[in-house]
């Protein structure tokens, strides 16, 4: 069955960096685009970034452009989100999703940006 497992979250000071991972199994990872979403406290879940199956095309929410980088390693069935220059408003649970419209989500990893 499809499994998506996020890791790498934690507490970081403003201006700091974190790298999230999403380990995938149960499907042909290299054949499907992948997406990161996040849900902040009291907010709706929102799109963060997406990457095509080969990694050649990426897309970002305006709020993270220039600070976050999405990537994937198809040999390791893993997607990444490098987050730099973190701000308190980046505090959220971060989720990976199979594609952009599927019902397959990971369990999420908490990112807290605070001094």
Compact description:
By secondary structure, this protein is an all-beta fold. It has strands at 3-7, 10-12, 18-25, 34-39, 46-51, 58-60, 68-73, 78-83, 92-98, 109-113.
List how many beta strands DSSP finds. 10
Radius of gyration from the alpha-carbon trace, in angstroms:
13 Å
Query: What percent of residues are in strands?
Result: over 45%
Mean pLDDT: 97
- How many angstroms does the end-to-end distance come to? 40 Å
Strand order of the largest sheet: 2-10-9-4-5-6
Query: Tally the helices: what do you get?
Result: 0
Low-confidence stretches: none
So what's the overall shape?
globular
Structural class: mainly beta
Helix content: under 10%
Largest sheet: 6 strands, mixed
- Helix/strand order: EEEEEEEEEE
Write up this protein:
0% of the residues lie in helices and 48% in strands. Strand 7 (68-73) and strand 8 (78-83) form a beta hairpin. The strands form two sheets. The chain has a six-stranded mixed β-sheet, with no helix packed on it. A four-stranded antiparallel β-sheet has the order 1-3-8-7, with no helix packed on it. With 115 residues, the chain is mostly beta strands. It is built from no helices and ten strands.
């Amino acid at each position: 069955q499809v499994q998506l497992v996020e890791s790498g979250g934690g507490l970081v000071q403003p201006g700091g960096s974190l790298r999230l991972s999403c380990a995938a199994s149960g499907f042909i990872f290299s054949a499907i685009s992948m997406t990161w979403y996040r849900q902040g406290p009291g907010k709706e879940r929102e799109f963060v970034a997406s990457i095509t199956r080969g990694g050649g095309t990426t897309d970002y929410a305006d709020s993270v452009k220039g600070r976050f980088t999405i990537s994937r390693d198809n040999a390791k069935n893993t997607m990444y989100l490098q987050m730099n220059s973190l701000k308190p408003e980046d505090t959220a649970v971060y989720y990976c999703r199979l594609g952009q419209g599927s019902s397959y989500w990971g369990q999420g990893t908490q990112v807290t940006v605070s001094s």
